[in-house]
Amino acid sequence: MNVRRRRISGIAVTAATALGLGTLSACSSDSSAAGNTDKFDVVASFYPIEYLAEQIGGDHVNVTTLTEPGQEPHDLELSAKQTAQMGEADAVLYLKSLQPAVDEAIAQSDVKTKIDAASLTKLEDHGNVEHDHGGEEHADEHAEEEHSEGGEHALDPHVWLDPVKYAEIAQGVAESFEKADPDHADDYRKNAEALAKKLSGLDTAYKEGLAKTDSKVFFTNHAAFGYLAERYGLTQEAINGLDPESEPSPARIKELQEEAKADGVTTVFYETLVSDKTAKTLAKDAGLKTDVLDPLEGITDKSKGEDYVGVMEANLKALETALGAK
């Protein structure tokens, strides 16, 4: 399937990398902290990873997470207590390169089982792509921009927003759990199979729900939905800016206004964990609506769902409405 994509600015891709790790539920209490239980103790670095650990581990695991709900992920600084708990854990589950403090602590930790989710699927570069307008000249301009912005693209870390890739990670996590805690391997395998069915159902719902739409283009606050867009034949356009709360430049607003008219865009999506000021500024200037498309970087009381599947279902409904699904 040929997916129609447009150039997303290097700045937006950098934003995606900076914001890739999301917020999580708070760390467990002292009584259930990593290393202090008779269960398989797992430290998870962010919400989608935490969800996998809990779904696959079931009753056999005690999961401790590192980032509190509502916290800006790149601002995370580990306490001495958290670092110590990590060292006492049976396993650490994380996504390498997104939170330097986590990477550094894991590198220095002697925890036996270190599971890097990024190694369990293939990460892709959603910034350096050729789009359906502009041709070679546009591509050359883009290459010059990327060179001037300081080098190669970082790989897009938002793999959990693609149910298929998320399922690949889940399978790898399950295999790691089975190896590290063989006494409960059968249960881990069964739990992983149950999770795979949930994710397959989610994938089917997205395929069917987005198969026929008036538009294939959607605007987001930052470039978190590249994998989702590619999987389901959509085009993500991220508002320019490294900081998701910054205001887009006048030039970017003008560009997005023109694209909104050309592609039938109706909605600018914002996120639950950052200000909606940017999205509302663009929406007002372009005469568009606003809605939430949650990158699932953390579950809070503002989330439109209690867990990963619930929020992904809410995201699908939002996309169906915004894109004019048939």
What tags apply to this protein structure?
326 residues; alpha/beta; two-stranded parallel sheet; 11 helices; 8 strands; globular; disordered N terminus
Write the layout of secondary structure elements.
Layout: H1 10-18, E1 40-44, H2 47-57, E2 61-65, H3 80-88, E3 91-94, H4 100-108, E4 113-116, H5 135-148, H6 163-180, H7 185-209, E5 217-220, H8 226-231, E6 235-238, H9 250-263, E7 267-270, H10 277-286, E8 289-292, H11 308-323
Parallel strand pairs: 1-2, 1-3, 3-4, 5-6, 7-8
Helix pairs in contact: 2-6, 6-7, 7-11
Describe this structure in words.
The chain is α/β, with parallel strands linked by helices and 326 residues long. The protein has 11 helices and 8 strands. The chain has a 4-stranded parallel sheet, sandwiched between helices. It has a two-stranded parallel sheet with strand order 5-6. Helix 2 packs across helix 6 (163-180), helix 6 (163-180) runs antiparallel to helix 7 and helix 7 (185-209) packs parallel to helix 11 (308-323). The longest helix is centred in the middle third of the chain and has 25 residues, at 185-209. The two termini are 20 Å apart. Mean pLDDT is 81; it is low at 1-31 and 128-152.
Concise account of the structure shown:
This protein is an alpha/beta fold. 43% of the residues lie in helices and 10% in strands. A four-stranded parallel β-sheet has the order 2-1-3-4, with helices on both faces.
Q: Name the strands of the widest sheet in spatial order.
A: 2-1-3-4
Runs in which pLDDT lies below 50 for 5 or more consecutive residues are 1-31, 128-152
Beta-strand residue fraction: 5-15%
Shape: globular
